[in-house]
Amino acid sequence: MGRWRWRSAGGTVVRVVVVWAVSTLTMLALAGLLPDFRLQSADGDSITRTAVTAAWGAGAFGLLGALVWPVVVRALLLVPALVLGLLVFFLNGSLLLLALWLIPDGRGVANPETAVVVAAVMSAVASATSTALAVRDDDAYRRRLSRLADRRRRGVRELAGGGDAPGTVFVQLDGVGHAVLLRAAESGVMPTVASWLGATHRLTPWRTDWSSQTGASQLGILHGSNHDVPAFRWYEKDTRQIVVSNRPASAAELQRRAVERTADGGLLTVDGASRGNLFSGGADQLALVLSVAARRGRANRSRAGYFAYFSDPANAVRTAVSFVAEVCREIGQSVRARVRRDEPRVGRGGLYPFIRAFATVVERDVVVAAVIGDMLAGRTAVYADLVAYDEVAHHSGPHSRDAQDVLERLDRSIALLAKAAEHAPRPYRIVLLSDHGQSPGSTFEGAYGLTLRDLVRAGCGLPVSRRAVRTRSGAEARDAARDAVRTALHRGPAAGGEEDVPATGPDPIVLASGNLALVSFPDVPHRMSREEIDRRHPALLSTLADHPGVGFLLVRSEEHGSLVLGGDGAAQPVAALKDGDGGPLEVFGPGAADAVRRTDSFPHVADIMVNSMFDPRTGVVHAFEEQIGSHGGLGGEQSLPFLLSPLELSPPVAPGETLAGAEQVHRVLRRWLREGQGPQIPLEPAHARPAGGRPRRWRPARPQGTGAGGALGHRTGGVEE
């Protein structure tokens, strides 16, 4: 053991000396190439003296990077992520100026702009050299990767077991549908995934709920319940609040409700880590988790996950360079799309290039690094979300070349995780999955010249934007509203001029979630019935149901119960809906009836639920938002995500059965975790935890035969202590 320690220490010293020497040569080369950077006195120095100066500067810069940089990054955790990424160059350049100032006799001089360039180059060269030296040294490679994530160990790890028991890493490829993954693997876009298919992993499609979006799907997957999540955003009449899934306060509330409903902390309560997700899943180790972003305290801040990554200046520089390159790539792709006059197309200006770069570079790098650190630390369960594809597909289209480029880079990230797993202290099973797919199509406004909000207001007889009035759809909607109002008032066609309409009260709230929209009347405290809506706005329901861009509506009837409405007066009771019985839902395929019926039972379902049209021949839907790749409702590839699981795990469902709904996916993932760890016993009963408190802990139970204590239930196979 002593000899091994001396050999390891000697190897470390050698690597430090080599990196220092390479950094010194790099600094000398840059001093010769850049006119505003010098390492000599005004009178000139000998080659030896200049080399010593460069060695001083390189050593000081490396030491400052190791000691000062982590402190600076931790102090900047309050800075927004996008700003932090842009500050990387400035901070690194400042450290170089400080290092030059520390050189004796003031021989190191550079202007600020040149210092930024020199610092970036030296960090990149030092990082590359250090990595190259560690390639043949597994211990060094593991140590380097381990620095990328927080390695604090909790007492629960000992309870969770270890040794040869496998850990599980769930990697969510946000927005990647089953069909998209298959095409990417078959075409060579994702070679790593292609090598897994059929050889080491099985591919299983699954069907989302009506609300096919990350908020509903991930809440169900991580916490076992997405009850009362009708869309990505919705209006709650009892609280008079608009809930938006990707707002920290809303995410925290949705997580609280799910934990309260299930009386369970979540999928990751046993030694788990949650990375880049909307919800924590009950994990202790968190990075970029939205539901805890609003909490006070450094340990609970979602930005705390940045520290482990950006504390390494080489990582910071590499990610910052990639960030700038991605901004330039998006601008170039957007310009080419406009020049080619690609259709459909949406605006991609403003802050979008920076938002895309954050999703495809910063978020990806930080999350992947955190997952690698989790594996090297031997954590039991990790769930990570990579959002890059989803963000690009919204604006470029799910089948675009831009989106394929992102899939290629995601495949490389998956390969990196698989490589890191080889150096982990325990075996790992890597499961890939998605939360939904995306369906292509022009926006509702692009196809018909008016927004859904304008259509709703026209159906209510309210003023609409001038642009909407000038369109054919807007004029038709306005005329239909007038005729319906006259009919309701027993009046004939007007000779001319505007007719009086009934008082409408407060304006309706129209909220879009992809190709699903929710219409609520805030002045009515309960869910309005079809009859109430018809009395107040006689033309509204027919205006919406008969529009070619609308697939169907869901409303409640006092006489017939909840109804699905389609064009030409079609109406079907929700209670009697069945797949294959015709009607407005027929085109949306298997599972649509069950999905609509389940959402209809939610307390916060809107007064009117609107799903866009769907063309089964082309797969096209029309988003009610500015998206040419969308998800959120029923129709096409958005409703069919995937689950790619190792063959050593039990099949997700029996042959011939369909995996339907995020809550069922949660149960499958629970089962897989139990297969690796055995039955779990809660350390703290739910009733002992105060409302809003920390999720319940679990520990593995020893097998106890087939009795009650050893059976595998929905959540546990043991008893509460």
UniProtKB/TrEMBL annotation:
It holds the Pfam family Phage_holin_4_2. InterPro entries: Alkaline_phosphatase_core_sf, Phage_holin_4_2, Phosphodiest/P_Trfase. Residues 706-721 have a biased composition (Gly residues). Residues 677-721 are annotated as: Disordered. Coiled coil: none annotated. Keywords: Membrane, Transmembrane, Transmembrane helix. The chain crosses the membrane at residues 12-34, 54-72, 79-103. Signal peptide: none annotated. It comes from the Bacteria. This is Phage holin family protein.
